[in-house]
């Protein structure tokens, strides 16, 4: 089909994608192995293909053409001709409409049918056959956009890493049940920019939101057939386009307005991005974009068996980032979100895959990591790795470059086990509280490199962590086989909901203990949205497909209404921000601290007040940890430099601790006591050498108050 109505001139091979210049639109598509590329233009409803024309030029493996009378709003896609030879790695099929990898917006959603597969589904030859059905009607269409937006005086908060507190949230799940947001906006980017949301974030004290994937993604067919969807979004289709279901207005300017409003509130925006694989799956997956444009270039194929895909992700395929054009796609996408959309950083899903070179091995100096390190834009935003994948030697915690933060699952597991009541963990817990120096203390890295968390989207919520010992994922339709069985959870005596007052009280305290451990530790803390409200997923630890009350935050729960846990978290964050001892920019060494006379930066203590010996560290039944932190005025003159005494008691009985006698300290005031609902300690000040009783399963923080006339030592 080629009507000839649309005139296409030569255009230019750069930039890739559809670019409106005020007069017309330049179309450019990379494909090293295609023989012909057709631009398909659709009516405004996206139902009818009204024209199909060849891109006339081919330069540097880029097909390109310029349409002089095209305007923003035009709907388009591509059909790409070439060999269909799966055993040679080629899967061209011009009967399939394809999404432009550089599309900035999508219209409509994928309507599943067998027509979306390049081969005849159910045929004896499987993917070696060719399917000639046209899939265009059920495909989302690409939209030519006008990128103009008035940012006004938008200023990035540029929060230093050492001051950062991350809040991981799901765009849709966060606001679907907020009654103070207009119903038509709930679940959208517009909702996240509402004053009710920014007030909550400011009240809490977090400095950044980390949004679960917002790149346009696909609901897997198997989920749709179970009347479910891909809720989390780790199934990317278009790396430049925001997910249409998050746009209440249908206009990408809505995302920019959200960013601007969050910036106005002092909140950074970090995107969780999925460049390790795409929605096209394995060799039996659909042909939606990359596979039909140039399968051999975009994907890692098994050497010697190019019909199949290398899969380090568990999702069927892996992008070939060691190919220069695929690397360009990823970096162009990152730069677009950083420059055009004003985001402040990225968290990379299964980041180990991105740094695997052609031989499949992880390389700390891979092309991907080196490009980001030298890029004048991307080297200045926050970069966070999920430092593992499912491939050989995929666990790389501590192995990323020094300017990266990394999700530290060892912190999560150690904190959970300690408060569950496991013994023999105090040495390991001390290391985790000290920002895991044994893992990150090299190459000039700082404590903030360790992104600490006790809960995240993947796993139990905080409330469920103390309410369930087994996962309850039946709603996912997979026979409760999905989700991790290694949760290190403790139900406090009853599995799931209960009216037992004693169990409920212990659960509330355990939540406070875990939050206190997180926010008192060195490193970058990350909170899961809703944990401050006691949000539950009914024991589901893999709510990836639950776009419903299971996956949405419950703002009407009893804990959310009484606000005590929210007040506790806000108090904790304020305490962290007010005391430099809790967020030093150097690793703790146990040596004399600058600006604090005779105090070490950290002193590990036993209950009678003396410093721990090697025998004390090795005591197998120890379930408490006590340490003295020296404050510092270095780099933060607004924060208190008073020393802090921290006690974490996971024993089942009270513990009595002697308060140390510290030079210049007149007495010790209680700043935090997790035995109290709001955490604000009510004990009278203790004199040096006095004793404090710490209740079972409780965290206490004491502040050493300086005597009159005290002046810190000069630097």
Spell out the key features of this protein.
elongated; 31 strands; 17 helices; alpha/beta; 20% helix; Immunoglobulin-like; 715 residues
Concise overview:
20% of the residues lie in helices and 20% in strands. The chain has 715 residues and is an alpha/beta fold. Among the domains are: 17-143, Immunoglobulin-like (Sandwich); 589-706, Immunoglobulin-like (Sandwich), CATH 2.60.40.
Structural overview:
This protein has 715 residues and is α/β, with parallel strands linked by helices. It has 17 helices and 31 strands. Among the domains are: 17-143, Immunoglobulins (Immunoglobulin-like, Sandwich); 589-706, Immunoglobulin-like. The longest helix has 20 residues, at 501-520. Residues 708-715 have low confidence and may be disordered.
The class by helix and strand makeup works out as alpha/beta
Taking all Cα atoms into account, the compactness measure Rg is 28 Å
Average residue-wise pLDDT: 95
Give the distance, in angstroms, between the N- and C-terminal Cα atoms: 77 Å
So, CATH architecture of the domain at 17-143?
Answer: Sandwich
* Total DSSP helices: 17
**Given the C-alpha coordinates, what overall shape results?**
elongated
Helical percent range?
A: 10-25%
CATH topology name of the domain at 17-143, in short, is: Immunoglobulin-like
- Give the tally of β-strands: 31
What's the main sheet like? 8 strands, parallel, barrel
CATH class of the domain at 17-143 reads Mainly Beta
Low-confidence parts: 708-715
Q: Give the percentage of residues in beta strands.
A: 15-25%
